[in-house]
């Protein structure tokens, strides 16, 4: 195999704090340690499909460690294997496999390898081009913390901090008004964000997708707190939480997205149900995209720097087609094929679940 001379970097899927910190680490390590040329691909795999590729210099990578978002832009609607190329007579999307176009653009740009910074959708896209001979490394990003084989993704701890600060504020107003306050976090089908933010802010009830809730249990818990002289209840609910035997609440369906379902609104549904059944006053707050924004916390800046550096170590050492992971305190790597199309949910024997239950938090099922 030929030695590396020029590499590309892209950020795909939903953004999160720390993307720029990874880009910075990749660009600086590539140039300082390996003497490589680096180019940036705009808007994730969309930029590879549309051939939007530009040089990434040391100057571009300077002063971005603390900046939220991604200087490269991103897209969560561009899987080359299933790309929307038009609409049929009834307005439905027409999809095509445009991988050949991607391969031609990679060749034209002279890219010897690609650093793909993203979540499971991006790793799935990366796997698609790996199978056609492109050399990639992956870096795990997402506020959802739901990538297989890594104990943590960068961006998660910043989102937990943001949600926790919001919950702290909700706490004071809940107490003044003696209300049941529901705060809905993101996270898709994984409850990491709700669990960590709820635990960190002292939520009374935490509802996560992995543990379907019983509405009676939640209502009785709220009434029970009132009976014990506690005049308010804080419920942290993950957007993917659902009742036992019931369904998630879907906010919208985006047909040309690799993962078309957007969740949202369960807190509002629950607020109405709880108030109807208990007579208690309820309010719902959906935190939404605020959880994805802003400057990364120190932990994520360090993790992103280590991930970016490790990605370059893998490329420099000829270890292609692997994703960097954080496993039991070590930064190591796994094949991207083992991560694509997978989700890491909260295991029911997770120690934090035992800890919050032991201190009286209701997890919705008992
Ligand atoms: O995967 C990150 C995430 O923020 C999820 O938590 C959320 O369900 C989804 O993306 C929202 O996607 P969009 O930015 O398309 O609304």
What's the structural domain tally?
A: 2
Number of helices: 10
CATH 2nd-level architecture of the largest domain:
3-Layer(aba) Sandwich
What is the C-alpha radius of gyration, as a whole number of Å? 22 Å
The low-confidence parts are none
Which structural class should the secondary elements be placed in? Answer: alpha/beta
Shape: elongated
Strand tally is 15
Could you give the order of strands across the largest sheet? 3-2-1-6-7-14-15
The rounded distance between the terminal residues' Cα atoms is 58 Å
* CATH topology-level name of the largest domain: Rossmann fold
Q: Which band does the percent of strand residues land in?
A: 15-25%
Following the backbone from N to C, one meets helices and strands in this order, namely EHEHEEEHEHEHEHEHEEEHEHEEH
Bound compounds, please? 6-O-phosphono-beta-D-fructofuranose
- CATH class of the largest domain, please? Alpha Beta
Integer average pLDDT:
96
State the assembly state of the protein chains.
single chain
Largest sheet: 7 strands, mixed
Q: What is the share of helical residues?
A: 25-40%
Q: How are the elements arranged and paired?
A:
Blueprint: E1 6-11, H1 19-34, E2 37-41, H2 45-49, E3 53-55, E4 83-87, E5 93-96, H3 99-108, E6 113-118, H4 120-130, E7 136-140, H5 156-177, E8 180-185, H6 192-201, E9 205-207, H7 215-227, E10 233-238, E11 250-253, E12 261-263, H8 266-278, E13 282-286, H9 298-316, E14 322-327, E15 330-335, H10 351-358
Parallel strand pairs: 1-2, 1-6, 6-7, 7-14, 8-10, 8-13, 9-10
Antiparallel strand pairs: 2-3, 4-5, 11-12, 14-15
Helix pairs in contact: 1-9, 5-6, 7-8
The protein binds 6-O-phosphono-beta-D-fructofuranose.
């Amino acid at each position: 195999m030929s030695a590396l001379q020029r590499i590309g970097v892209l950020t795909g899927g939903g953004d999160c704090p720390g993307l720029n910190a990874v880009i910075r680490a990749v660009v600086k390590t590539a140039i300082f340690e390996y003497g490589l040329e680096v180019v940036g691909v705009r808007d994730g795999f969309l930029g590879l499909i549309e051939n939007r590729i530009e040089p990434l210099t040391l100057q571009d990578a300077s002063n971005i460690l603390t900046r939220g978002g991604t200087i490269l832009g991103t897209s969560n609607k561009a899987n080359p294997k299933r790309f929307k190329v038009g609409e049929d007579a009834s307005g439905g999307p027409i999809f095509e496999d445009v991988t050949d176009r991607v391969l031609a653009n990679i060749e034209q740009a002279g890219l010897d390898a690609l650093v793909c910074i993203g979540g499971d959708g991006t790793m799935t896209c990366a796997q698609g081009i790996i199978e056609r001979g492109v050399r990639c490394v992956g870096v795990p990003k997402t506020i959802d913390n739901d990538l297989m084989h890594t104990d943590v993704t960068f961006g998660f701890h910043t989102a937990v901090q943001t949600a926790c600060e919001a919950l702290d504020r909700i706490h004071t107003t809940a107490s003044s008004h003696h209300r049941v306050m529901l705060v809905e976090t993101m996270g898709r089908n994984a409850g990491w964000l709700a669990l960590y933010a709820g635990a960190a802010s002292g939520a009374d009830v935490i509802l996560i997708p992995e543990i379907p809730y019983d509405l009676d249990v939640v209502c009785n818990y709220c009434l029970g707190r009132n009976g014990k002289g506690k005049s308010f209840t804080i419920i942290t609910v993950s957007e993917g939480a659902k009742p036992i035997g019931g369904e998630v609440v879907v906010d919208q369906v985006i047909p040309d997205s690799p993962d078309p379902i957007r969740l949202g609104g369960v807190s509002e549904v629950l607020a109405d149900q709880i108030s109807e059944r208990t007579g208690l006053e309820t309010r719902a707050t959906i935190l939404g995209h605020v959880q994805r924004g802003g400057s990364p916390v120190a932990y994520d800046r360090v993790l992103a720097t280590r991930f970016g550096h490790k990605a370059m170590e893998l490329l420099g050492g000829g270890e292609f087609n692997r994703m960097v992971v954080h496993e039991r305190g070590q930064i190591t790597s796994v094949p991207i094929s083992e991560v694509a199309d997978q989700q890491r949910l909260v295991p029911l024997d997770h120690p934090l679940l035992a800890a919050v239950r032991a201190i009286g938090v209701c997890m919705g099922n008992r």
